[in-house]
Amino acid sequence: MYTVLILMGVSGCGKTLIGKKLAKEFRCQFIEGDDYHSAENKEKMERGMGLDDKDRQGWLIALRDCLSESSGLAVLSCSALKRSYRNILSKNPNQTVFIHLVLDQKKLEQRLKSRRGHFFNPSLLQDQLNTLEGLDSTEIGFTVNSDQNTEKIIADILSKLNDKKYEFQYA
User: Fold this and answer.
1) Residue 120: its pLDDT value, please?
2) What is the CATH number of domain 2-163?
């Protein structure tokens, strides 16, 4: 049984928006990964300094622990840029499906420039794109184009979840 859906991808791809809508669709808990960043990490990103593996370690462990404590289906938004990060997140007692939201760089840049009230400095996008390791065939998950309206993205996700015959355990 799968009980965790992780929306992954670089900043600006729509993880939070789609995650909230997906959680509403499934009537389950939504966990905003950005809320678990330390104050130091947020300040660093605000100043335009990218995070390294050491910076992300505590954040990923906090997210994994949060997932371990969730009962029933949960949806998490988290960049999960590297396979090693996804391995940390997957080491929870719940079965995890990764949903990689993808969007071309120009549209990502446009979204980030128009976003207000977020600590992520748009100048860090290239750093995230350079760090990103897409899902490979040994990982449980799939990719969805986020350059479409929200309803179509949700429909694509639900269709792929159904096609893959993932069974979900609800609270």
Assistant:
1) 60
2) 3.40.50.300
